[in-house]
Amino acid sequence: MSENVEVEVADVPSAPTAVREGRAAPGELSATIRRLLDPVWAYVRTTDLVPLHNIVLYRPPDGEPGMPLEVGVRVDRAFDDAAPPADVCCRELPAGRVARATHVGRYERLGQTHDAVVAFCHANGLERTGRSWEIYGDWNEDVDLLETEVVHEVRPLRDPPS
Fold first, then answer.
1. Sign of the alpha-carbon dihedral angle for 90, 79, 15, 97
2. How far apart, in Å, are the Cα atoms of 153 and each of 19, 59, 128, 159?
3. Where are the beta strands (DSSP E) in the chain?
4. What's the pLDDT tens digit per position in 35-81?
5. Are 154 and 99 in contact (CB under 8 A)?
6. What is the largest CA-CA distance in the chain?
7. pLDDT tens for residues 92-130?
8. Per DSSP, what are the bridge partners of residue 19?
9. pTM of the predicted model as reported, rounded to 2 decimal places
10. How far apart are CA 77 and CA 6, in angstroms?
């Protein structure tokens, strides 16, 4: 539940990713993530890249239909994205200041943790850049024990609320 979420501000390094870009229509996020993620894993398994955790990066709205996003896998290093099939490309989670929290539980409730991070930012004078991402922890058969890091890129407000 969002009232039990602990949010922290941290400076994070960039992290290379193997991703596919896409857009998610309202109500189709889960299906879009699966559709985009499967070819990334198929590609990564054919390489010597070391896969770490699944990620979804949400980009700011750009006026086009659907939510722009990148779906894929954190990997151990950058790679030449001229070779991968199925529009798999090398990108990175950005370096910089973030507000983040660990969501524990079902993916369907991730919105509660995002809401808690947004509320924290507002209460603490942090302006969100519009980019956020989720880093999915290791799979657990007990979906109530799944861990997902929810991250929002931030910058200090010029005039924090009084």
1. negative
2. 19, 11, 6, 18
3. 8-12, 15-24, 51-58, 67-75, 89-93, 96-104, 126-136, 147-156
4. 999 999 999 999 999 999 999 999 998 999 999 999 999 999 999 86
5. yes
6. 54
7. 999 999 999 999 999 999 999 999 999 999 999 999 999
8. 72, 89
9. 0.90
10. 30
